[in-house]
Design goal:
The chain is α/β, with parallel strands linked by helices. The protein is built from 16 helices and 19 strands. The chain folds into 2 domains: about 110 residues, Urease, subunit C, domain 1, CATH 2.30.40.10; about 350 residues, Metal-dependent hydrolases (TIM Barrel). Helix content is about 35%, strand content about 25%. Strands 1, 2, 3, 4, 5, 14, 15, 16 and 17 form a 9-stranded mixed beta sheet that branches. α10 links the parallel β11 and β12. The chain is globular, with a radius of gyration of 22 Å. The two termini are about 35 Å apart.
Length: about 500
């Protein structure tokens, strides 16, 4: 018998977004694509058979907010942190990157910057990968069309607090930090011009328009500066409570209002509000959706803000922007998730080694610690563990972890387990509990603020385009990750034939 399929995964409980149940099915794979779903596909039809043993089969997670290479060489970071992603069921990594200090520690045009990024990325990722870009210099705004058309990067970022505040705290040298000239300003006017450029890009290229978006880190520097001085002067708070008070929730809320008004003013219709961390941020984001219903807002939360609170003993290990909040804010985020006010959940993974994260001379000082930590390896397990306790369905989890970010950012071959989609699959035991130990992670961070946390729902196996990349507690094989030039394909562009899946001419042209 001719082999119709490269792989058949038998006995899987398939979790699909936009469904209301889990189906017991076999999954046939050919040429990296899902070719067929059926209750009993004959093993003899496949070159390789894998028994899922009745585990849940989630579509591979699209971790749409990561930072590869922020605190270490990009090529080295890509290896270890993408391995961590694979062990957590993440198969697509979208990474925010910019010019200025950190990352490549250079300025200049993205025409020079992006080739170096892609060179250092090539053959270093164990999962598929792409980038979002932040236009920092005035000249970058004119490069947005080039980034979208020539590099497949149609998603752009604004750091609202960078105009007068540093990555880790107060700074009086922002132009030096951003590596821009003294005549340049990274301010609200600059943000407006980024949005206007995105709108022009949408109007000029209507086929690309659904995937052109502007993402915002919403905090206001003036409020951060004032409240940091107050918290430090009073000295009543310490650790994560101090950091949360120094970057108060109303700073998030006010920034969201400003960003939303600018989006309306510029007719920039695709806006992503990143890592909402508080009840006030959620309320502001939801209010703006009602005020400007024509704008396609998307609201993001991180697994860190869902699992950690300001009372955590991890303290400086969990320093991040915006801050980890008190428990009442954490529960407000979960309620927003359950109420379907949140569009996707991400890790905001930023590997920061212990040597960099805190001061050796003052290891508990929250003010001098670096911001950011890793967590992509706990994204699926964390949401599965805590979400299940709150009655969240597996299908809803698949929507927030895979489908919705894939749709927003133009990964149209990702995010579902259905014929025509990439065979990105995470097999998960929803009943297996484990205690988080940083020593067991592929990440080179060396610690985790989730240390000692018990999660229920363990990723056992990860397939990337039908290739085994994680199994039995180990990363498998060489690096298989491909660069995601977006928009990437469409499931409708592939057709089933007697030999499995074949690309149509339209799909082939789109990939050239």
């Amino acid at each position: 018998m001719d082999k119709l399929f490269d792989l058949v995964i038998k006995n899987a409980r398939v979790v699909r977004p936009n469904k209301t149940s889990v189906a017991c099915l076999d999954i046939a794979v050919n040429a990296g694509k899902i070719a067929r779903l059926a209750p009993d596909i004959q093993a003899e039809q496949a070159r390789q058979v894998f028994d899922a043993g009745n585990l849940l089969a989630f579509p591979g997670c699209v971790d749409a907010h990561m930072h590869i290479g922020i605190y270490g060489p990009l090529g080295q970071d890509a290896v270890s942190e993408s391995k961590a992603a694979a062990m957590g069921g993440v198969t697509s990594s979208l990474n925010y990157i910019r010019t200025g200090q950190y990352y490549l520690n250079r300025n200049g045009p993205y025409r020079d910057f992006m080739p170096e990024v892609l060179k250092q990325s090539d053959r270093h990722f164990w999962v598929d990968y792409g980038y979002h870009v932040a236009p920092i210099e005035a000249g970058h705004i004119d490069e947005m069309e080039h980034l979208a058309l020539d590099y497949g990067v149609p998603s752009f970022k604004i750091f609202m607090f960078y105009g007068g505040y540093g990555l880790h705290g107060r700074s009086s040298h922002q132009n030096e930090f951003l590596m821009i000239g003294p005549e340049h300003r990274y301010d609200i006017a600059h943000f407006e011009f980024i949005m206007r450029s995105a709108q022009r890009l949408m109007a000029k290229h209507p086929g690309l328009a659904p995937y052109v978006s502007v993402s915002l880190h919403c905090e206001l520097a003036e409020i951060l500066d004032a409240y940091t001085r107050i918290v430090e002067r009073e000295g009543r708070l310490s650790g994560l409570h101090a950091y949360s008070a120094a970057r108060p929730p109303h700073s998030e809320g006010l920034a969201i209002w400003i960003a939303s008004y600018l989006a309306n003013e510029t007719n920039c219709l695709n806006i992503n509000l990143l890592h909402l961390s508080s009840r006030k941020a959620i309320d502001a984001a939801w209010t703006m959706q009602q005020v400007f219903p024509h704008i396609a807002f998307r609201r993001e939360v991180t697994v860190g803000h869902l699992l950690l609170d300001a009372d955590c003993e991890c303290a400086v290990q969990a320093k991040v922007n915006p801050p980890i909040r008190p428990r009442e804010d954490v529960e407000a985020l979960w309620q927003a998730v359950l109420d379907r006010k949140i569009d996707w959940i991400v890790s905001d993974h930023a590997c920061c080694s212990a040597e960099q994260k805190w001061s050796k001379d003052d290891p508990t000082n929250i003010w001098v610690a670096k911001a950011g930590f890793g967590g992509t390896e706990y994204l699926l397990s964390g949401v599965l563990s805590e979400g299940s306790k709150r009655g969240m369905s597996y299908n809803h989890m698949a929507e927030l972890l895979s489908w919705k970010p894939a749709q927003r950012f133009g990964l149209l071959d990702k995010g579902d387990i259905a014929p025509g989609y990439d065979a990105d699959i995470a097999l998960v035991d929803p009943h297996e509990s484990f205690v988080v130990r940083s020593a067991e992670s592929e990440s080179k961070q060396g610690y985790t603020p989730f240390e000692g946390m018990e999660l229920t729902g363990r990723v056992k196996t990860t397939f990337l385009r039908g290739v085994l990349v994680y199994d039995g507690g180990k990363v498998v094989g060489p690096a298989q990750g491909r660069y995601l030039r977006r928009p990437l394909g469409q499931p409708g562009d592939v057709a089933l034939g007697s030999g499995g899946i074949a690309e149509t001419r339209r799909a082939a042209r789109a990939r050239k």
